[in-house]
Specification:
It is a single chain. This protein has 7 helices and 9 strands. Strand 6 (119-123) and strand 7 form a beta hairpin. Strands 1-9-2-3-5-6-7-8-4 form a 9-stranded mixed sheet. By secondary structure, the chain is α+β, with helices and mostly antiparallel strands.
């Protein structure tokens, strides 16, 4: 499947079955099928020159559980700081969630980020695939991305990119550049 998503696919360090099972157990929910397939086939790396997806690995720099917790903590701290900022005294800080379900943030698990500061998260409800959402770098805009990871990358490679990443976004190249285990080990030790 991933060879049809990325015309130029250079896999990185893949996740093994034990690492995938560990992440699911630590998180307390099953990982989506498209994501698991991505972890096995593509591994750690950069998609379209912009998107990093955290994968279950023994390296903190790329590990799903470690990165997800770090992103959630960072977003929470930034949202608190913005809500306490005098700049928002006349307009309280709030998330601008596309659609009619603001509760999506209560069910969010962050699993990726873009080079320009946006964050990807799953709406962790139900079973199978989870809807993927993108929180803009402004920490206010929250847009629907796709129903699966492969659908998200296909959408980001076409005109729908502007609806997902913002009006200035251009379609991403159909490319995945993997990161090898040795590079990950130097970037961040055991998870």
């Amino acid at each position: 499947m991933w060879q049809s998503v990325f015309e130029d696919l250079r896999p990185g360090c893949p996740s093994g079955e034990g690492e995938i099972a560990r992440a699911a157990a630590e998180l307390g929910f099953p990982l989506p099928d498209s994501y698991v397939s991505f972890c096995r086939t593509c591994g750690a790396g950069l998609a379209g020159g912009l998107v990093r997806v955290a994968t279950p690995l023994p390296y903190e720099a790329a590990d799903l559980v470690t990165r997800g917790e770090l992103i959630a903590h960072s977003v929470g701290a930034a949202a608190r700081a913005l809500s306490e900022s005098p700049d928002f005294a006349d307009r309280p800080f709030r998330f601008d969630v596309e659609g009619d379900d603001a509760g999506v943030l209560d069910r969010a698990f962050f699993f990726g980020e873009t080079e320009d500061g946006a964050f990807l998260f799953w709406d962790v409800q139900g079973t199978g695939e989870y809807d993927i959402w993108v929180m803009g770098a402004d920490l206010e805009s929250v847009r629907f991305g796709a129903e699966s990871l492969d659908a998200l990358f296909r959408a980001l490679q076409g005109p729908r990119v502007a609806a997902i990443l913002g009006p200035e976004a251009e379609p991403l190249p159909s490319r995945f550049e993997g990161i090898e285990a040795g590079v990950l080990a130097r970037a961040g030790g055991p998870a």
